[in-house]
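@channel anyone free to eyeball this complex?
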Amino acid sequence: MLRINADSLVEVAVYGEVWPPSAARDPYKATSEGLAAVTLGMAGICFQNRVGDPAFGWEADHLEPGVSIRNQHDGAEHALHYLACIGNEAVVTSGASRGARGTVTGEHAHVLVDFPPASIELLAIGDRIQVKAYGTGLQLLDHPDVQLHKCSPRLLEALRLESLPDGRLQVPVVAEIPSQLMGSGAELMADYVDQDFMTGDRAEMARLGLDRLRLGDIVLVRDQDHTWGRGYYEGAVTIGLIIHGDSAWAGHGPGVLDLMSSRGPAIAGVPDADANIAWRLGLRDPAADDVRAPGAVSSYAGIEQV
Amino acid sequence: MFDNREQLIGVSVQGTIVSPEYPPLPATPYVIGADGRPQLLPSQGGIVYNVRVGDSAFGWLADLVQPGVSIRAGAETANQALNVLSCLGNEAIVVSGQATGARGTVIGKSGRFAEHVIVHFAPETLEQLAIEDKVLVRAYGRSLALTDYTDVQLKSISPQLLDALEVEPDTPGALTVPVAAEAPAFLVGAGSGLMHESGCIQIQTDHKDALAEHGLDELRLGDVVAVRDYDSRWGNGYLKDAVCVGVVVHGDSPRAGYGPGVTVIMASTNNRIRPTLRAERNIAELLGLGTAVEAPA
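replying in thread with the prediction:
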């Protein structure tokens, strides 16, 4: 059992409202290949798409699964962003779905909350959702070189971490992402939203198999130090969570939310195809009918670079 | 080599000299270095008296120092036009204050969170300038294209700078571009996924050995550099065999993911741009902006 300082953490309520999707009068943006495309996909209530679904293959940009919330007051909005941790409990506190309970599964333009679908059939845009924020300041007491971001004690337990005899922290991960693919989000601190991995090189996606990732997958990013910002550092290791879907914009792709990072080699990944928070937190059953599998082959297989 | 410069229009865009800025209370004024250490440093903006294009991009006690004068327009839409339409090498004219009529040159554009256009003026002009003085840019060069090289995009580049680059024909459809240095894609940090018709991408400098290994630790402000496996045609992102060329526009930073900024002026895929290393590829010399002062020890 890993020793943590959970007893020292303060649990505090933060809140947001179910936030509507928004569009500009001219909704088109250029894709990485120079085609005009409508770029909707964020915010609102995603009735069909939940954590555990494939991260690729949707007709949406930066798909935010589940329910997207934000706070209209700037300070409270930042508190929601910085204090809500992955795995925290959320509850609907207004409207017809009052009392429904969900789980925080991501932080992007909005904080993303997953609910059992039957419990939110009457959830409305504007309904208030409160999060029991618990996890800021969390530390692995026997791994001082591993910095945690947005991990709740509940998430840490679900990740099936182990201390290795050589002192490293072993983390089960679905895939590894090489440093040169890390894109939009390098300009932000590691405690604020996510960093996309770049999917514009479709042949490279097929080669690495990254286009078969799911929302909720745990991944390892090599040679990236995300302790105090996001940048290249040889030997550094970062563990992330796939929180939103793919994008057609250059420099964008599925979002990797930082969970832990080490400037040195203090973290070791171990392959585990089931390292996904949808099942590990008990939010969904991977064998259930409503869980769609990623394509059997890469969606970019056979694409030749011209 | 033929281009479409006769079809381009010259149009006015305008900004005012910006003050350096810090977030209001209760925020602290510190930037957090990659090592987690808070540091208090001059931020972007203002009139920078002792750092000029041609100087070292490293060694200054400042976060992302922008040489010379930084300007922006008040309204967001007008500032977008200032940032998108201004081209490196364009003429800038002071149109208010004590230095009215003084002429300078656009030498860069900063990225997300600043959105400034960076302008070089002679030292005697800097002495006369005041924050909030108005600077007009004669924007000319947007939509510039090379007739026989349709797979090479030009952006944020004036015809004057294009002429000075000494670009040469290579195999059909491909160009040789002399540059001071080449960066690999993994050293590009902040700027990926952000603006590409304005702003810049940053050559991140946290890992000093990697920087030195690629000969990037002696970059100067104004250097022309190439980035390999990086596609800046319709955004900024990784793509094998894509090459972009840009100009170093601001200095280093202690922050993770940050470092000297490169405003992109050429973009291509499939190795249609062939960078070739050559000494003294700096816009201070190429545009005749005067002698560089010494870099700090």
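from a first look: Chain B is about 10% helix and 30% strand.
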